[in-house]
Amino acid sequence: MNSIIPLLAALLLAGCAATPGQDPEPAKDVIKDPAKIHGFFLRMIRDRQEKMAAMVTTLNPDEFYLGIRNRIAPDLTRRILLGFEQHDLKVEGESAVARWCNKEFGISRDFKLISQVGGRLWKLEITREQIEELAKAGLAWFRRQREAADGRIYAYPPDWIPAPVMTSCPCGR
What we know:
Elements: H1 4-17, H2 27-30, H3 37-46, H4 50-53, H5 61-68, H6 74-83, E1 85-92, E2 95-102, E3 107-116, E4 121-125, H7 128-148
Antiparallel strand pairs: 1-2, 2-3, 3-4
């Protein structure tokens, strides 16, 4: 009897950990609020669901997927996107501009959010060229790391900290 009590407690805790309220908000609800797009976008990329992340962008899901998994620097492109913080969001009528910054890579970009259906649905306007530009910024970051490591590649000690491109965010925050 005493061994059943811990088992029941473990099952109860496991059931509480999987409550339906913890499910991520679906894309159809996220696109109604431009402030929610950043979080959803990053969460889907983190979970390796690039095609779901594309649901809140103007790109076709296949184009977005191929852009993220580019030949230039796929891991660095993903790392750049995951490091973006939203520092500003200005909504003016049926358009908005979001400032996304990544201190580690020294990138600060203004991304346009466009409204559809009279301001009730929003999408992040991003192009394949912008994604490729992020990949090239990732390569520049990699070159900086190699310079900081005296030209060594893949020989970093476990406690090595990447050399930041910038000490503060380019937008001043």
